[in-house]
Amino acid sequence: MLHCATKDFLGLSDQETAYIDLKLMLAENLKKRRLAKKLTQVELAKLLNSNQSRIAKMEAGDPSVSIDLLVKSLLALGTSKQDLAGIIAED
After folding, report:
1. Is 62 within the bounds of a domain?
2. Other Cβ atoms within 10 Å of 6 Cβ, number
3. Mean pLDDT throughout 34-53?
4. Which of 8, 11, 18, 59 is 20 to 30 A from 51 (CA-CA)?
């Protein structure tokens, strides 16, 4: 997902780039699944005992959001382990 020029400009290692790409894929899928379930950010926040601004940060791939939280949120939306594996395997 990160362009090679961006990776080079920021001086990121392959591992750092892979981590960022994974986080962005999970964030993108969280938003897609929320919209597919016709939930607002506020409704998802209630489901996760969180708040709307946190959901917005999650969907934007904000650095303050952990991959763990993204995975837990996807599971709460009914994402299966197989679907998660598919998200991770995307390239």
Report:
1. yes
2. 12
3. 98
4. 18
Cα 86–chain centre separation: 13
The answer on pLDDT for 22 being more than 90 is yes
User: Cα–Cα distance between 20 and 15 in angstroms, integer?
Assistant: 9
The model's confidence at residue 5, banded by pLDDT at 50, 70 and 90, is confident
Single out the residue of 52, 70, 1, 79 nearest to residue 44, CA to CA: 52
State both tokens at 17. Answer: 């780039």
Task: Give the total residue count for the chain.
Answer: 91
Q: Taking Cα atoms as reference points, which of 58, 66, 54, 57 lies closest to residue 19?
A: 66
Domain, as residue range, for 55: 23-89
Residue 55 lies in a domain: yes
Which pTM was predicted?
A: 0.86
